Amino acid sequence: MKKARPNRELKMDVRGKSKIVANGILSSNPVFRLVLGMCPTLAISTSAFNGLGMGVAATVVLVCSNALVSLLRKVIPDKVRIPAYVLIIATFVTLVEMLLRKFVPALYDALGIYLPLIVVNCIILARAEAFASTNKVGDSVLDGLGMGLGFTLALVLLGVIREFLGSGTFFVGSFGEAEFGLTLGSLPDYSMSVFVLPAGGFLTLGLVMAAINALSDKAAAKRDAKHEEEGKMIDERVREHVEGELAALQSAEAEGAGASEADAAVRNGGDGAGEDEK
After folding, report:
1. Helix 48-71 and helix 81-103: axis angle, to 10°?
2. Over the chain (278 residues), what is each successive 10-residue block's mean pLDDT?
3. Which of 24, 61, 92, 246 to pair with 6, CA 20 to 30 A apart?
């Protein structure tokens, strides 16, 4: 039993770590659940490649800034923590901006002003304040990774839909000198350009959020029904167990009463025989 305890603790620790990452992707998705970072979400998600680039850049900044904020959480004075967080975030944003400008100039031009605006992105500042400033480095890195992946997936999903409907293409972009992507036949001739405009961004975001909420409500209802059914099964088993115990107790009492009557009859018979002998 002592040898099994470390394995059990390791499994619980792995579950806890994976839950931190899954929280940012699913239950606390910064775009679809927390509704944060709407400015870059609506402006950049005109294509899947732009959404992926913004998501990766924000993820790198999230992970690095969360790690550094967690490391310095006991050093930074409470009165200047927000300016300190902004300075840390701005440092990593500048590094990412320089790397993109050097190696992916097309993406750098596409992201435009929204790349340096990552400095004041409420997702990054909120995670630094709400999580990294009160947790260990490892957990803070996982939190930044989960939130970054959730933000990236949301941007890519919106970008795929808007690019497909608004331009008739799929994941068109360039990385250095390499160009990739698909033009879907004659679909560009029938595309609806409204989806690459701000109005299309709001429309797509609203429809996707409505679909996700509907699926979440359906899953929650199914989960509640399952828990209710399991509760009924447990109640039924408890009732059967109690009835079985009562039946066994009543049977034991009946047997005890029968034995007592038999003893009484034997005693009465013995007394009668004694009187006859007299």
Report:
1. 140
2. 51 73 89 90 91 94 95 91 93 94 88 89 89 91 94 95 90 78 80 88 93 89 82 80 80 70 62 53
3. 24
Is residue 172 within 8 Å of 180, Cβ to Cβ? yes
Written as six digits, the tokens of 66 are 């969360």
Q: How far apart are CA 37 and CA 111, in angstroms?
A: 14
How many Å apart are CA 139 and CA 148, to the nearest integer? 14
Asked if 201 and 162 count as a contact pair (C-beta separation under 8 A), the reply is yes
- Residue in this structure with the two tokens 């034991």, named with its chain if needed: 252
Q: In whole angstroms, how far apart are CA 57 and each of 92, 174, 232?
A: 10, 16, 50
Q: In sequence order, which residues have a C-beta less than 8 Å from that of residue 10 and are 6 or more positions away?
A: none
CA distances from 21 to 53, 73, 141, 149, 187 (A): 20, 21, 9, 9, 38
Q: For residue 171, what are the contacts with CB-CB under 8 A and spacing of at least 6?
A: 47, 48, 49, 160, 163, 180, 181, 182
Structure tokens, 231: 């509760």
Contact 161, 37 (CB under 8 A): no
Return the domain boundaries, the chain: 4-194, 197-278
Q: Give, in order, the Cα–Cα distances in Å from 195 to each of 46, 51, 191, 205.
A: 8, 15, 9, 11
**Contacts for 25 with CB less than 8 Å, ≥ 6 apart:** 146, 149, 150, 153
